[in-house]
From TrEMBL:
This is Cytochrome P450 family 1 subfamily B member 1. Its cofactor is heme. Belongs to the cytochrome P450 family. InterPro entries: Cyt_P450, Cyt_P450_CS, Cyt_P450_E_grp-I, Cyt_P450_sf.
Length: 429
């Protein structure tokens, strides 16, 4: 979502401002409409602090290329709950551990909705069951008028449409192949399991909510989209950080060799005996915080948070970055320091209480459904990679961690892959 909000390149952002000004000048009725359209709703938000919004574009261009940093700065100024506008939509941004938990856990039902954005209908061919996957979304969601005339944002939106269509076509083909070769009683993989559950087993749910055959494709697209991008982003960060800190890489490998040995590969049961490996993994999640803002939520009812009234159907941003870099929770939050999770700073075990405070899978009803699976995968991929390989940058290569904090897809690939140009060395030879 933030890919398209926050990382709109400078030229389209400028074009947007120019467009907004032109629209204001030439379409005065539009301005009138904007005022009257939002005036009722507007009342609600007057009591909530926040930056002044521009007509039509709201605060969109103020978020820049690192929106979570801007939002965290705004939180320092306006407080844990503040209001801004993106296009014509009112957004309430929630920051800080206590306030986020208050909203997502204590008032779980009130904050568990999803906004109805046009881009969500593109994902999974409009059949999506979860609403959307991480990373989807567009400025078009909050400024739908951008679709009405040629402009760079509309072009980006159409590209996004094409990518989604390609992914969906790929998955559809795989599901068709599975349907043709499916044999009752044999479950070869996840696709077979879904076919069995939905088509052979009579489906689950009732009435309108009953799962239909087309949900096989859309559910798989959801899971594929939500897991593939996040896991690969984690691994890119992991590789970059073990190269950046070779002493830590060495310590991780020593721990693996001691506990697992050289005769077999690490398995999930080993995790409990590998405290430094686990501490390192959580520090990668905390420090990089590569999902700094969750998928947008929406309020399902009129509600209240920290004394502020928030109406039904308000878009809610949850700023996970504000928790993972909060100096009230973490000593030297800007420092990559896995030892913070080791109870006594040696290798006796990890501090479970502190680990629970890393916020990257969100919390409450909408928290990531793949969290437990993801943690096993993150552990297995990273420990097997280090068990088998040494990672080092090509000689003379400077590894910069700056400026790539939040990892929007395309910047991440451009920057990190260029930076890495790594040397792999098989450890067993
Ligand atoms: C490091 C890996 C991962 C991270 C950091 C991550 C993080 C997240 C976050 C922040 C959300 C949004 C929660 C919210 O809106 O409050 C989410 C949603 C979701 N995740 Fe993950 N995720 C990861 C891996 C996975 C995996 C492996 C799967 C599937 C096997 C998965 C499936 C989903 C699904 C289906 C949703 C949408 C849930 C909903 O709309 O209710 N995720 N994830």
């Amino acid at each position: 979502f933030l890919n398209s909000f926050g990382y709109v390149p400078a030229a389209p952002t400028l074009a947007l401002i120019v467009l907004a000004v032109l629209l204001l000048v030439f379409k005065a009725p539009c301005w009138k409409h904007w005022r009257s359209d939002s005036s009722d709703h507007h009342q609600w938000f007057q009591g909530i602090p926040g930056p002044i919004a521009f007509p039509l574009i709201g605060n969109s261009f103020q978020l820049g290329s690192m929106p979570h940093l801007k939002l965290s700065r705004m939180a320092a100024k306006y407080g844990d709950v503040f209001h801004l506008k993106l296009g014509s939509r009112h957004i309430v941004v929630i920051n800080g551990e206590e306030t986020i938990r208050e909203a997502l856990v204590k008032h779980a039902a009130d904050f568990a909705g999803r906004p109805d954005f046009p881009s969500y209908h593109l994902v999974s061919n409009g059949y999506t069951h979860f609403g959307k996957t991480v990373g989807a979304g567009s400025l078009v969601d909050v400024m739908p008028w951008l679709l009405k005339f040629p402009n760079p944002i509309r072009a980006l939106f159409h590209d996004f449409e094409l990518i989604n269509r390609d992914i969906f076509t790929f998955i559809k083909k795989k599901v068709e192949e599975h349907r043709e070769t499916y044999r009752e009683g044999t479950v070869r993989d996840m696709i077979d399991a879904f076919i069995k559950l939905i088509e052979s087993g009579g489906g689950i749910g009732e009435g309108e909510t009953k799962l239909q055959p087309h949900h096989v494709e859309s559910t798989l697209t959801d899971i594929f989209g939500a897991s593939q991008d996040t896991l690969s982003t984690f691994l890119q960060w992991f590789v970059l950080l073990v190269m950046k800190y070779p002493k830590m890489q060495n310590r991780l490998q020593k721990e693996l060799d001691l506990v697992v040995g050289r005769d077999r590969l690490p398995r999930s049961g080993d995790r409990i005996n590998l405290p430094f490996t686990e501490a390192f993994m959580y520090e990668v999640l905390r420090y990089t915080c590569f999902v700094p803002i969750t998928i947008p939520h929406a309020t399902t009812t009129d509600t209240e948070l920290n004394g502020f009234d928030i109406p039904k159907d308000t878009i809610i941003f949850i700023n996970q970055w504000s928790v993972n870099r909060d100096p009230k929770i973490w000593k030297d939050p800007e420092k990559f320091w896995p030892e913070r999770f080791l109870q006594d700073q040696s290798s006796k075990g990890v501090d479970r209480e502190l680990i629970r405070r890393v916020l990257i899978f969100s919390a409450g009803r909408r928290r990531c459904v793949g969290e437990e699976l993801a943690k096993v995968q993150l552990f297995l991929f990273s420990s097997i990679l280090l068990h088998q390989l040494n990672f080092s940058p090509k000689s003379g290569e400077q590894l910069s961690l700056e400026g790539v904090y939040s990892l929007p897809d395309w910047i991440e690939k451009k920057i990190i892959l260029k930076v890495i140009s790594l040397k792999l060395l098989n450890r067993s030879t």
